[in-house]
């Protein structure tokens, strides 16, 4: 209780004493005594209590019988009290009372004696409070209406209170308040009365007293504290809302001396009303604004805790972090709650670090175990370190077995062990829990961990027994239905399918929890599926999904449902079911199973591309899955079915590398050989075949392997070996189902090994003995190719015609038709060839050689000088489908030349420009430039013609370049620019290898030499002097060159004639 520092009551005053002395001195007191008495009064008035006490003592010793002696003793006692000589003072006050029971000073002496005892008690002798209380009570008893009665009551109450007789203090306080309404002590008495009732746990009475105080003294300096205390009484009665109102009023005054306490209690009132954020804010205010308050440290921590409960992790972390730096339990408790904040906000590393740092300081503290649990929980929340949490939980239990949190730590350890699949540890810890804490509320939960551990350890019989016992013991537990599902699973895993069906059938439909109902029907469907009861299984699995479509094993349910549908032949529904699972549960842990099942279903349906895609998903995303080998095997065969050898090879190689001991490894050798052959890894394929043949396969499989071995030798370029292999195969298995293929490959091997005649014989044998084979047409085609190569075009024509007639495949048919046309073209039967190409384009309009055939029709017409028909045929060619750029360039060139032959100069220019645009580096670019020059020349576009002829000349070192130079000379000659013309003609004569030029160039050199003679001859007529002599000489030179070097040229006779004419000049 807060005791006010009221002035101790001392009866009487020195002034009144002096006055009384003056009155009596002349009557009874001798002068000597009066002098001592007067000095003592003076000393006492000057507060020289030591001197005064000496004088009073002297007076009493010398004049003890004087009428003023009693007053002198009273004053001496007062001085002794002032000098803290409580025993002496009490003795003198007591002497007055004892010596003269009817003394006029008795009332004051009683008051002063009580005050002396009171001061004595407060100075360090608390036993004297009892004497003070009794003295004050005696004073009030003797003088209930006396001048000191209110003081006597007040200090009697105070003395009882301070002597720990609070119940006895209530009477004096009550009497003071109720009887002395004008007393200056009444307010303090009312305050003390209320406080004492409050401390005696009489909140209702205390509240009543506080209400009376506030009614009587609303402006008293204790009014705010009383309001606070009144709120405390309301708090003690759990009326937190009312208390909050009252404390809000108190705390409105920031100058209130107990503001920190009032705020502290206001925060508590709000906390009790779950106004967590508001309470946190008040605690934070105390911590921020009142650093010297005794509530400061605790408020920091409590602010954090309130914000924690309110879910304001940022504010909680702020205050708990600050509080965690405090020393003692408050700092440790704050650290503990800060760890919980870190765990709540996904920062287990921070929680672990903080807890570990605080554990050393927490030794011996009540916060040690919470911090250790924080550390363990932080490890648990880090999946990669969850195993460490198990050890720490065990350590907590071992080192602190009596701690209230030990059972929780032990259970956490068992559960964490179960989570980390340390099932042995989970069972051991759960058993320890059952033995050490048989009455704990977590007992059945621990037994569940033990049963679950047994189930996970595949001790299914033990798990069955434990779950049956658990179900019996926890009949009223809400988890009972869940335990039933685990029991059903234990039965399923023991293949006790009939038992499980009998157990679940009656209860599955009665379950109210959707998830458990879904699980029940799933387990029921699983056993029905295992017993090949596919329609019943499908019905149960659909019921599972109907109960809860997103239950935790919905993915597994959908997969099993798809299998039930597949087993009933409904692959479309099976695929749709798996797709539904993938869409609804994209993050399912059974995603590998889903992809694999889709691969299987698509493969069975013959959709190998989709099957491969699904198998590849398993391989890429789920490499560690137990289904990975199966997926690789399915993937390989899916690629083989699509003739994707490299991809298939990689799949089988991966299977054999990563899963060499798997049951699929032997089959994968032969499969990889097939794949390697498809991917041109023939040596590797042959090696796989050899390994497979060592497995002693069946006859048909051996024949296949030998056939494949031959293909491998072909691929390894061991053509002779391959031929021998195929020959041996034909000999060992003459009725082999693939005999036509053997002859086909034998023929190719012979051909590749330099025995074309024997190869042709093999092709011919194939065509003769297997006329219905899909390879017969190609065999005839190769017979035709052999004849074509030896230029026996008539024989080739016959073979191609046979191939065309037998062709089942478009590629062979088209090639045969195309080469039939070429065989006729080579025999210069252009009409028949053109007809053959026309048949080809009609029968195979979209074939890869269709455009080539159209082009060749144009070529046949071109060869026959039927330029208009040729140009029309060229116009029907689809250039983007021609088989080569050279053919495409030749097509445009001949089309343009055909147009030029028809004097369609603009069309010719268009074709040539298109050629140069599309193929600027074409081998016929020079010819195209020449044709452009020729067309421009004929359109009288001399300058354009010159540029084109120059371009042609620059591009071609042969005939076309020579022609272009010649035409340039002609153009300059026509323009009478003889010097320029002469330069171009000289380039023809002297360039292009000169005398060693190509035969195709020589005619143009002859023409150019002749024109050089002309260039000089035409200038002779107008020249005089030395120029004329030179022109004559040059004309003779070049005419002579024509005659001597090009005697076969058409210009030779003309040159001789001109030479003869010049010689006559």
From TrEMBL:
Keywords on record: Repeat, TPR repeat
TPR repeats: 926-959
Claim: Oxidoreductase is one of the keywords in the record: no
This protein's record includes keyword Repeat: yes
Pfam families: TPR_16 (PF13432), TPR_6 (PF13174)
PROSITE patterns xref list: TPR
Database matches in PANTHER family: LIPOPOLYSACCHARIDE ASSEMBLY PROTEIN B, TPR REPEAT-CONTAINING PROTEIN PA4667
Superkingdom of origin organism: Bacteria
Stated name of the protein: Uncharacterized protein
